[in-house]
Amino acid sequence: MSIDRFILAMAGAFILISLGLAHYHSPNWLWVTAFVGVNLFQSAFTGFCPMAIILKKFGGKSESAF
Length: 66
Description:
Layout lengths: L2 H22 L5 H17 L3 H8 L9
Helix pairs in contact: 1-2
């Protein structure tokens, strides 16, 4: 799995988990959803993604490496 697809999968998982926690536990979990959304939005314009940097350091491959 490429870094790009892994990041999309992780973002989706974080959003769904935080929505579930907000529904069953506390509405404050919606801040996690907002953080993930803002991060996705800014990375679309700037190309900067902290998770991608971390994954590259651990040896992840981007789609352009194929």
